[in-house]
Amino acid sequence: MEIEYITHSLDATLSMNDPHVMALGFFDGVHLGHQSLLQQAKAIAKKENVKFTVMTFDPHPNEIFKRETDRRYITPPDSKLERISALGADKIFVMNFNFPFASLPADDFIQKYIVGLNAKHVVVGFDFTFGHKAQGDVDYLRHFSKNSSFEVTVISKKTRNNQKISSTLIRKLISDGDVHLIPDYLGKHYEITGSLDSLVESPIQNTAFHIHNKYLMPKPGLYKVEIISGTIGTKGLLRCGGESCHLSSSAWVSLYSGEITIKFLYQAALMRTVSV
């Protein structure tokens, strides 16, 4: 799988000569709705015997327009790319979302980054927008494609428990501490990565856990979690207080000082005041 990072400029050279089917979206979380879209794009690519590619964007537009410089993600960029890759993408284009790119008219976006990349078929969600001030939408894309060299497939809204599956919904569940509900929409438990200060021989008691990357954290509280270190897995408790987290486990295992994955299972207790 290949990753190509693109920063918009008028003379940018794009390297995709072979025809391909391209899925477009931000894809934070790569939730069940995103997975449906990506799987549909992959199926079309297989049917047409061409490569399956994905175009995503970094950073989130709110970091540019609303100056959310400390915005947190369900899946920070590296994690998002890993999940997209696991779904079978042959190539991922990561577009640098900056002011010059955000100012690009919708027609120019299509000409440069769909036609210019030799995409023969694009797959987008029903609410996909693009171009300056989001002037382009799925109807605009369909209309443009009638006189162009590509086709368009639009994936309809996906729901679960009478709610639209969306990154916004999952972000709210995380922020509210309702982590036990997340698998219904994400397709798996919410997880983050981080590290301990050193090699620890369990049982672990209130050991500082350092979060890697810009993960969105649940509200302060005590969470039942699964701890994964290499090939070792065990249950434990993670006490969260904003950016300060402490890990405990009664199981006797050795936890490596490198990267550890934490899967949130459910909230065990609220924290009225945080003291760790």
Could you characterize what this model shows?
With 276 residues, this protein is an alpha/beta fold. The chain folds into 2 domains: 2-157, HUPs (Rossmann fold); 188-270, Riboflavin kinase-like (Elongation Factor Tu (Ef-tu), domain 3), CATH 2.40.30.30. It is built from 8 helices and 16 strands. A 6-stranded parallel sheet has the order 1-4-3-2-5-6, with helices on both faces. β12 and β13 form a beta hairpin. The termini are far apart. The mean pLDDT is 90. It holds the Pfam family FAD_syn. Belongs to the RibF family. Residues 17-168 form the FAD synthetase domain. Keywords: ATP-binding, FAD, Flavoprotein, FMN, Nucleotide-binding, Nucleotidyltransferase, Transferase.
List keywords for this structure.
elongated; 6-stranded parallel sheet; alpha/beta; 6-stranded antiparallel barrel; 2 domains; Rossmann fold; Elongation Factor Tu (Ef-tu), domain 3; 276 residues; 34% strand
What's the total number of strands? Answer: 16
Structural class: alpha/beta
What count of domains describes the coordinates? 2
Low-confidence runs (pLDDT<50, min 5 residues)? none
What is the CATH architecture assignment of the largest domain?
3-Layer(aba) Sandwich
Helix run count: 8
CATH topology of the largest domain: Rossmann fold
Average of the residue pLDDT scores: 90
Q: Proportion of β residues?
A: 25-35%
CATH homologous superfamily assignment of the largest domain: HUPs
Q: Tell me the helix content.
A: 10-25%
Major sheet summary line: 6 strands, parallel
Order of helices and strands: EEHEHHEHHEHEEEHHEEEEEEEE
Using the alpha-carbon principal axes, give the shape: elongated
